[in-house]
Write a structure and sequence with these properties.
There is one protein chain. This protein has 185 residues and is mostly beta strands. It has a single domain, classed as Beta Barrel (Porin). It contains 3 helices and 8 strands, in the order ααβββαβββββ. The chain has an 8-stranded antiparallel barrel. The radius of gyration is 18 Å and the shape is elongated. The relative contact order is 0.23.
Length: 185
């Protein structure tokens, strides 16, 4: 809940300061970002997550391709108390994503939309996933004398088929919500 409040606050702050003069996306072709947030693994609970992404921007920042890596945990107190068993070999989470995105309003209030593919390694079990999501890059005008730095928030849904302990396959939706800093170059 605190992460959602922080994302809404940053979005509102960004809407207040973004102007046409702050269009870092239109002037630069690349960006990198470092972010942190939460990873809600379907059925296992929500844990911390850190990630990094590289974006190649084109069309004045309206279109982009992105590659990202992230790390987290699958530790679940609920499952430990209820089942008293270990579902995965370990509690580590590793993801990578390859996305294409459209931002119809790089300096306006509308979010960008992404779709693509991901690899999800949960506790030693790897899965291929489809990804859909949204987010926003909010340049900070004049920060450190340039428009190269900004905030970024993202919400992605990683969708894939999963089987646990020889059960029938089921579709899972793992939600990734992050907030971070973005550097345009």
């Amino acid at each position: 809940m605190r992460l959602l409040i922080a994302i809404v606050f940053v979005a509102l702050l960004g809407l207040a300061v973004v102007s046409n003069e702050a269009s870092a996306q239109a002037r630069y072709q690349s960006s990198i970002s470092l972010s942190g947030g939460s990873y809600a693994a379907s059925g296992y609970g929500t844990n911390g997550y850190i990630g990094a992404a590289y974006d190649f921007l084109f069309g004045g920042g309206k279109y982009f391709v992105e590659g990202g890596l992230g790390f987290g945990s699958l530790k679940s107190e609920v499952l430990e108390q209820v089942s008293k068993s270990q579902i995965f070999d370990n509690d580590r989470l590793f993801t990578y994503e390859f996305l294409v995105g459209v931002d119809v309003s790089p300096v306006g209030p509308l979010p960008y939309f992404v779709a693509g593919v991901a690899g999800v390694n949960q506790g030693g079990q790897s899965r291929f996933a489809g990804v859909i999501g949204l987010g926003k890059r909010i340049p900070i005008p004049g920060f450190l004398g340039s428009n190269q730095i900004g905030f970024r928030f993202d919400v992605h849904d990683q969708i894939y088929s999963q089987t646990i302990n020889n059960s029938s396959p089921f579709v899972t939706h793992n939600i990734l919500a992050t907030l971070g800093l973005n550097l345009f170059f």
